[in-house]
């Protein structure tokens, strides 16, 4: 049951739960507008899943794109987004996301700490309004020294944080740069208090309005009241195996998710306890993932060669598909009765490492010692090692090699899409079709991974959390993976999670600012 009518230990104007891109955007917006803002982070580090990410931000028509000469606009982005997402999410919600992008980037870049630049990375679907080289922007690199003492509280990259692999942090890039820059900007407002090691336990409701949160820190339970409202942006429930099982048997678990283990759905469950409704609880931001010796699975994309085969020793999709689309193919294949989890990533000896992008980079010696990298001289011998039919794997390799020679993948059209070709590195007629012919041959395990769950709290265009009747719950907002994704079942382009999360974090804070001025 929600907490009600308790004495309070602290009062702020706005409480933001979480510290990823969506949360810090909300907090920065509120604090810049003069609202006393408290940021509550459950773990010892700020940044959440955003700190692990490449930090692509998908916001059509923004100033950073225009500086690069990219011919994008809100209207073009909306055409594409609606063609890909369809009517799975409300049209008004889609429009709220897409129309705010230019304003959001312009607002952020008023602060000298917040700088963005366009970099090519193709949109993920062939649809009207697509930009073949992509429309995402990224934070500019940040010298780590500029963060000062905050660096010790910035969540490390995923390689050292989850795999114990050292990584240089002299210059912060990607999600490290995004969170670092947002922390600098937030500190400079003078209106924000940022706490680590502080877990939200429940929401406080007074007179029908969410009025604050109950938190636990250092073994003590206290209350932080929010005079204007609470913003929940604390990630999804990807690392709570029980919640995953409860919602349509969502495949995978903490070990397959590229998210901090602290993402256990606290925000979603607390909001449900005060009457919030949810959506898309059977969905995630899917991806192929390479199984590592420590039992975790690492996000894998950008294949340079090789093929994926299922338990029948057969290909089942275009291996160069955008990662979420490939994840859906793995999930669909698994549901069809033939095991696709794990699949096997088969490639030849022209590659001295797994021919794909992953963090960290797989160590062949450690993988072999763990039995996760298997090698044989022929397809038949390799099939015996990975437990698939020998004749089937031989036929699959032979057929694929024929496609590599002709340059045409007659089965799955690999190499025909700009996204495929963005990573293609072969020297044959189709750079995405690299023959598997130089022995010995190798195979590593691929499982279905995710970058976080997509299911969460239903929100309106102002980020207000909705109850089962579709009515906003006073004082309660949500953004990021704590909210049901505006993208529905699709992943339109690189940076959709961060772009939409930051957009609704901004809208939520603007709504709270509007209420404060009207009140």
Task: Kindly describe this structure.
The strands form 5 sheets. Strands 1, 2, 7, 8, 9, 10, 20 and 21 form an 8-stranded mixed sheet that branches. Strands 12, 13, 14, 15, 16, 17 and 18 form a 7-stranded antiparallel sheet that branches. α4 packs across α14 (496-518) and α11 crosses α12. This protein is α+β, with helices and mostly antiparallel strands and 519 residues long. It contains 14 helices and 21 strands. The protein has helices at residues 21-32, 63-67, 74-85, 91-108, 158-163, 174-189, 241-246, 266-272, 323-335, 364-369, 379-386, 390-406, 418-423, 496-518; strands spanning 10-17, 37-40, 116-118, 137-139, 142-143, 171-172, 192-195, 199-206, 209-217, 220-232, 278-279, 284-291, 297-301, 307-309, 343-348, 357-358, 373-376, 441-453, 456-457, 464-466, 472-478.
């Amino acid at each position: 049951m929600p907490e009600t009518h308790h004495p309070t230990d602290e009062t702020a104007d706005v409480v933001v739960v979480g510290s990823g891109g969506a949360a810090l955007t909300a907090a920065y917006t509120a604090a810049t507008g003069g609202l006393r803002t408290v940021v509550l982070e459950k773990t010892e580090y700020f940044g959440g899943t955003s700190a692990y990410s490449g930090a692509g931000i998908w916001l059509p028509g923004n100033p950073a794109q225009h500086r690069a000469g990219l011919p994008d606009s809100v209207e073009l982005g909306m055409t594409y987004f609606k063609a890909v997402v369809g009517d799975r999410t409300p049209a008004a919600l889609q429009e709220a996301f897409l129309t705010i992008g230019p304003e959001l980037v312009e607002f952020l870049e008023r602060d000298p700490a917040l700088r963005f630049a366009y970099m090519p990375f193709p949109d993920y679907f062939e649809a009207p309004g697509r930009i073949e080289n992509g429309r995402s922007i990224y934070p500019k690199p940040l010298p780590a020294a500029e963060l000062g003492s905050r660096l010790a509280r910035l969540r490390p990259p995923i390689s050292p944080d989850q795999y114990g692999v050292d990584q240089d942090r002299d210059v912060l890039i990607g999600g490290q740069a995004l969170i670092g820059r947002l922390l600098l900007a937030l500190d400079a407002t003078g209106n924000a208090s940022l706490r680590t090691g502080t877990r939200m336990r429940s929401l406080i409701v007074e007179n029908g309005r969410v009025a604050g949160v109950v938190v636990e820190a250092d073994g003590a339970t206290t209350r932080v009241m929010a005079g204007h409202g609470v913003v929940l942006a604390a990630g999804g429930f990807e690392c709570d195996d029980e919640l995953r099982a409860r919602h349509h048997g969502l495949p995978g678990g903490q070990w397959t998710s590229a998210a901090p283990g602290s993402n256990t759905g606290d925000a979603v469950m607390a909001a449900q306890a005060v009457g919030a409704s949810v959506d898309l609880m059977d969905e995630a931001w899917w991806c192929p993932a390479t199984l590592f010796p420590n039992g975790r699975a690492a996000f894998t994309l950008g294949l340079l060669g090789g093929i994926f085969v299922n338990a029948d020793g057969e290909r089942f999709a275009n291996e160069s598909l955008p990662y979420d689309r490939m994840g859906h193919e793995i999930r669909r294949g698994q549901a069809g009765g033939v095991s696709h989890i794990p699949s096997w990533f088969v490639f030849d000896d022209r590659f001295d490492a797994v021919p794909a992008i992953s963090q960290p980079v797989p160590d062949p010696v450690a993988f072999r010692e763990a039995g996760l990298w298997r090698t044989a001289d022929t397809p038949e011998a390799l099939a015996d090692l990975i437990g698939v039919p020998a004749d089937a794997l031989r036929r699959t390799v032979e057929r694929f090699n024929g496609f590599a020679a002709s340059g045409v993948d007659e089965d799955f059209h690999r190499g025909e899409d700009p996204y495929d070709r963005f990573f293609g590195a072969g020297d044959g007629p189709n750079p995405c079709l690299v023959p598997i012919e130089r022995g010995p041959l190798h195979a590593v395990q691929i499982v279905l991974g995710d970058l976080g769950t997509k299911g969460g709290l239903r929100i309106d265009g102002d980020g207000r959390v909705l109850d089962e009747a579709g009515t906003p719950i006073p004082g309660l907002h949500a953004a990021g993976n704590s909210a049901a994704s505006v993208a529905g079942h699709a992943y339109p382009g690189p940076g959709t999670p961060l772009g939409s999360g930051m957009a609704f974090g901004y809208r939520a804070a603007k709504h709270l600012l509007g209420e404060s001025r009207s009140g």
